[in-house]
Automatic annotation (TrEMBL):
This is 26S proteasome non-ATPase regulatory subunit 8. GO terms for biological process: proteasome-mediated ubiquitin-dependent protein catabolic process. Keywords: Proteasome. PROSITE patterns: PCI. It comes from the Eukaryota. Residues 93-262 form the PCI domain. One of its GO terms (cellular component) is cytosol.
C-alpha cells in the first residue's frame, strides 16, 4: 500500500529539519574545535549529539543508504574530529570506534570524495595504536590496504613502519628517540604507551636476571634521563634502593645457578620484543 501524500511530505520535512539541525551542530563543533585549546567537554557533548544525528540521516555508510557527496564530507569531517578528540581525551576505545566508522570514507568512498588532508595522518595514527597494543597481525593487515608509494614516502605512514622495524631489530633506543620526532603531536599519545610497554619488558628481564644493579646502569638500560624518574619507577616496581646506590632484587634464583646472569640479561633485553611477538 502506498503511503499517503501527506505522510511523505511530513517525512521529508522532518528529514530536512534534522539535516538542518545536524549541519548547525557540525558548524558549532567546528567553532569549538578550532579554539586553541578546544573545550574538550563541549566538543564531546556535541559529538555525542552528532552521532545520533548521523545515524538518523543515514550519513554513516550502511547498506541501502545513499547520502549525498556533501553529506558524506560532513560526516567524514565529524568523525575525523572524533578521532582526534579521543586522543586528546586519552580514550582508546572511543578512538577505535571513531576510526572504524571513518575508514569506509577513506577506502569505500575514495572515488566519490576528494581526499581528506587528514587521511594519512589518522591512518598512520591508527597503525601506531595497533603497534602500541602489540596487535601486529592487524598492523600488517591495515598496512596492506595502503599504496606502496605512501608506505615508502608519506611521513605519517613511514613513522609507524619505522617504529615496527626498530622493535623487530631490538633498537629500543631509536624508539625512545622517536618521542621527540613525531609527524604530528597526536602521535605522542600512542608513542608514550609503546615506550611504557618497552620499558616494562626490559625491567622484567633485568629483575629476573640480576640480583643487584647500579642505579645509573638501570637508568641507562631503561632510558631514563632524570634520576627522580628512575627512582619513582624503581619504587613502583618494588625495587629496593640501597645506600650504595644499587637496586636490589629479591627474586628466586634456585634454577639459575648454572646460567650466566649478565649474558642472559643482555640476550633477554635484545629479544624480549621478538619473543613476545611470537607468543
Amino acid at each position: 500500500m502506498k503511503p499517503k501524500e501527506g505522510a511523505i511530505s511530513i517525512y521529508y520535512y522532518n528529514m530536512a529539519t534534522t539535516l538542518k539541525e545536524a549541519v548547525s551542530m557540525y558548524q558549532k563543533l567546528n567553532r569549538e574545535w578550532s579554539k586553541k585549546p578546544p573545550n574538550l567537554n563541549k566538543c564531546g557533548d556535541i559529538l555525542g549529539q552528532l552521532k545520533i544525528a548521523l545515524l538518523n540521516l543515514s550519513f554513516l555508510p550502511i547498506a541501502g543508504s545513499k547520502p549525498s557527496k556533501q553529506e558524506l564530507i560532513i560526516a567524514r569531517d565529524i568523525l575525523e574530529i572524533g578521532v582526534q578528540w579521543s586522543v586528546l581525551k586519552g580514550e582508546i576505545q572511543s578512538f577505535e570506534r571513531y576510526m572504524a566508522q571513518l575508514k569506509p570514507y577513506y577506502f569505500d568512498y575514495r572515488e566519490e570524495l576528494p581526499e581528506s588532508s587528514y587521511k594519512f595522518q589518522l591512518l598512520g595514527l591508527n597503525l601506531l595504536r595497533l603497534l602500541a597494543q602489540n596487535r601486529l597481525a592487524e598492523f600488517h593487515t591495515e598496512l596492506e590496504l595502503l599504496p606502496a608509494k605512501e608506505i615508502q614516502n608519506n611521513i605519517y605512514i613511514k613513522h609507524p613502519v619505522s617504529m615496527e622495524q626498530y622493535l623487530m631489530e631490538g633498537s629500543y633506543n631509536k624508539v625512545f628517540l622517536a618521542r621527540g620526532n613525531v609527524p604530528a603531536e597526536s602521535y605522542n599519545f600512542f608513542i608514550d604507551i609503546l615506550l611504557l610497554t618497552i620499558r616494562d619488558e626490559i625491567a622484567a628481564c633485568v629483575d629476573k636476571a640480576y640480583e643487584r644493579i647500579a642505579f645509573n646502569e638501570a637508568a641507562r638500560m631503561l632510558f631514563f634521563t632524570k634520576p627522580q624518574e628512575m627512582k619513582a619507577y624503581g619504587e613502583k616496581r618494588g625495587w629496593e634502593l640501597g645506600k650504595d646506590n644499587y637496586f636490589v632484587f629479591h627474586t628466586d634464583k634456585k634454577a639459575e645457578e648454572s646460567i650466566p646472569s649478565h649474558e642472559l640479561a643482555l640476550q633477554a633485553i635484545e629479544y624480549a620484543r621478538e619473543l613476545e611477538m611470537i607468543v
